[in-house]
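Structure tokens please, single chain.
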Amino acid sequence: MACKGAARSNASAQTGPPKADFEDAMKSMMQGGSSRQGGSASDKKSRIRYALSEAICAHNRKLLSEAHCLALMRDERKGNLLLRFKAVLPDLTIVSGSLGLQALEGSAESIATATAQIMQHFCQPWKCPPRGSAKAEGVVDEDLLHRLKHRVSIIVTDAASAELLASDLHRGVRRAADQTQTLDIAMPNIKIVGRDCAHATSRLLKRPFSKSPTLNSLMQEWIHGSDSFCQKVWHSPLLSKWWAKAIGHGAEELGIDGGCTSLSAAKHRFATFLNPLSRLCKNLQTVFDVCGRVQAMRGEEASWAGKLCRNFSGFKAALLALCADAASICSDFTRYSDREDMDLATLNLHAQGFSDRGRALFVEGQALTLPTYTRELMERSDPITIIVDGFAKEVKEWLCVAEDVLKQEFPSWHLLACFDVFHLSEHGQKTDVKRSLEKLGKAFRVSDAGLKEQYQKLLPIALSMHKQGGLPNRDAWKEAYARTRPRNASQGKYYAPDLFEVLAAYMAWTSSSSGVEQQFSKVKRSPVELSSSAADTDRRMAIVMGEGSKSDACRAAIVEAAQNVYCDLLRSGVARTRQCKRFDAGTHRAGRQGSHAQWNRDRKQALDEAVSQCSTPLRRPRQELPESLEKERDFQKEKERKRKAEAFNDGLLLEDEATDDVLLLKGAGEAIPGFNRTRVKCFTARDFIRWLVGSCLNRQASARIHKS
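Here you go.
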């Protein structure tokens, strides 16, 4: 038995808690779950979560120490800065993850400092160990920190002024306002500061719409104005219920799917109004059915619905459909850009595709012939012959402005546009390859002639991988480089050091910070930890969330490493495990006499027995209470009468339930001038007495004034 116990202890020291506990904790952390889910928090749960995050940090530190190129994506939301990375290893393998989360104030200097602090904390092993740990807090790996800062070649943010100024601080092109800070924030090898292209695509729709008086008025009236139809329905549970019911009834008659009832305009992200515009156009008759029910009500809502119906016309109907078509092509561009792993080689292709689609719909007039929202609306209504001259004028003007915005947001001269040379499709139009390679060679400080020569050597191989193997652009170039990579000094035919520098940037760089925004939606999701978790807990949860794209094999390796980290945290070096059940498991044991737990069990048992023997009297006698408690009782009774009178006015009481005090309260309310039945809850019998006394005093005062 002793040998078995020793063997079991050694196994526990190596494995720690069961693997299932780590897998469940990892799954919970990736979904933003709290450590208090499924019960109260414990030291075991804290150690498991800490071990998982530390194992991931150690894994990522090892990878980033070998990285050749590093891209950072960051965003700030509600006083927190989240930083993600995307790196390329020497074999062109792409790795990504999260560096951490840091609280900040929101200024440019604060953003730059928080970025440097996140990187510093990432390079510090055993940061803030849990209580009772055998490990002490480690020191910062200065060599790794220095390497990371010098490997960063791009920072991707949104277009906020503070973000752009903070990026200039990292690049050294702007001096900090606080010259006394000691933290090194310099990243000297940053080539460009990338702006999130997903936000840029939203400005293709939002900016021109806001500048057009007709379109802006239409959008304010129907989509995003405070008194618009979509906002009224979206923020009113009653109207939302009517809207969903009306759509379901209409779908049954037409034999179509009526499940799409949401009118959310997504104003907080990308402002793509395709959702409400498309559902208005597809359910235009339902709009007026709901407005008809609203007009039957009293008050401001009825006048609003009547005004909305009176101001509607065929011109607005057709214009709404054309706006929906415009929003649809913008949404296609946004969906392509809303991915952290977007392919920069196809950025120009999608930008050109947006312009081509707009011209085909609105300039060539194919919005009436193609399957569009405009065509569907026209087929359901009376024919309108002035659509081209009368209605398309507005969207043509929008397209002109949108193309100008497109040129400003996605300029052809930008460095990111030069990566079009790595697009392997035979149908896509490339930019001038020679000029693009020259610009890339200049940016990455490599030989132009060497870059062009090496590009021409590997291009046929990459094309073959793309065409025959069906590989996407990045995978095809990676496979081509791997096959031609020299194994020894004699195999130098395809030696491509200049091309490798540019390929590494092409693999690592992105023009989207959507991965940060999508991770923000999970961070701090649990309401239990919204205000009580420590800063390091938030940082570690963000790090674990960043591993969502890892493969199953990589996660299994992380769990195994986390078990070892868990054992290192213990002072004894031996982790308790429940992999083997005790021989007396399930055996009932008597409680220890004199303990609080045993006393509590005895108390509950005695109380249950006493309650079972009691009989409730039919009528309880009145008990004398102190004055303060009597006032509280009167307050509760008054509150009960008020709610009952409210139910009576709503027609929710039977005739025998309407007692005299309820009828008195109802009649007293009707006796007051300007009384509103819908606000009976604000009126009580005591209020009626006060009103009577006040009115008498006012009459006496007015009589004295009249006599004088």
